[in-house]
Specification:
Largest sheet of chain A: none
Helix content of chain A: over 70%
Largest interface: A-B, 15 and 14 residues
Oligomer: heterodimer
Mean pLDDT of chain A: 94
Strand order of the largest sheet of chain B: 1-2
Order of helices and strands of chain B: EHHHHHEH
Helix content of chain B: 55-70%
Number of strands of chain B: 2
Structural class of chain B: mainly alpha
Largest sheet of chain B: 2 strands, antiparallel
Low-confidence stretches of chain A: none
Number of helices of chain A: 4
Radius of gyration of chain B: 12 Å
Number of helices of chain B: 6
Order of helices and strands of chain A: HHHH
Mean pLDDT of chain B: 90
Radius of gyration of chain A: 17 Å
């Protein structure tokens, strides 16, 4: 039987691992000036593996533990992470627009970095908020 | 900005409950109880009522506005 605490930890590891991979993908895309710094399948596979692991863990934990792991504090943290993720996504348009306009980066690199940074912003913000409240 | 004070930690301790035990009775995570006690998280009315029912007190005995807000 998986407890609510263990389920929360599994979720935290899954989401933060996906966030780190997305951040690394976007960062390396900018640094190496190429849209595929490593296989684009890796963020996809890590994300799907994390989602499947969390779903299986939630099923094994049972309804009550799953409800406890997704209580109102979880939704509050998730909402705050979504808000930051939204503004990061919006804010990247003028930033990357300028970078493209000045010829610092190409469209494919910008497309690659913006997509993965948007995902990383939500995933890593949620992970940090989740960790902060665990003290 | 309103400052919400709460006596959850004291009321819980008086009843000999751990954060985990109270969380289990209310149906939330221990972290939620911890963040409420440390005034990091403000619970919903529904959760406040559930806490009050579990501790057998009124919501006002757990949560109150700070003196500065009452004077305003």
């Amino acid at each position: 039987m998986i407890s609510a605490t263990l389920l929360s930890r599994i979720r935290l590891v899954g989401l933060s691992a996906t966030g780190v991979v997305c951040l690394a993908f976007g960062g390396l895309a900018l640094i190496l000036d190429r849209p595929d710094p490593f296989s684009p399948w890796i963020p996809l596979v890590v994300g799907i593996a994390a989602a499947l692991t969390i779903m299986v863990a939630a099923l094994l934990a049972g309804d009550r533990n799953a409800d406890i792991a997704t209580d109102e504090l979880y939704f509050s943290e998730s909402r705050r992470a979504q808000i930051l993720g939204f503004w990061v996504a919006v804010g990247m348009y003028p930033l990357f627009g300028l970078a493209i306009g000045y010829g610092w980066i190409t469209y494919p690199v910008a497309f690659s970095a913006m997509g993965t940074f948007t995902a990383a912003a939500f995933l890593l913000t949620f992970s940090v908020l989740n960790l902060k409240g665990s003290v | 900005m309103s400052e919400l004070e709460n006596a959850l930690k004291r009321l819980r301790a008086e009843r000999g409950l751990t954060q985990a035990a109270l969380a289990d009775q209310v149906g939330v995570s221990r972290k939620t109880i911890n963040t409420i006690e440390n005034q990091v998280f403000v619970p919903s009315t529904l959760l406040a009522l559930r806490l009050a029912r579990t501790l057998d007190v009124s919501v006002h005995e757990i949560f109150s506005l700070s003196d500065a807000d009452l004077d305003a």
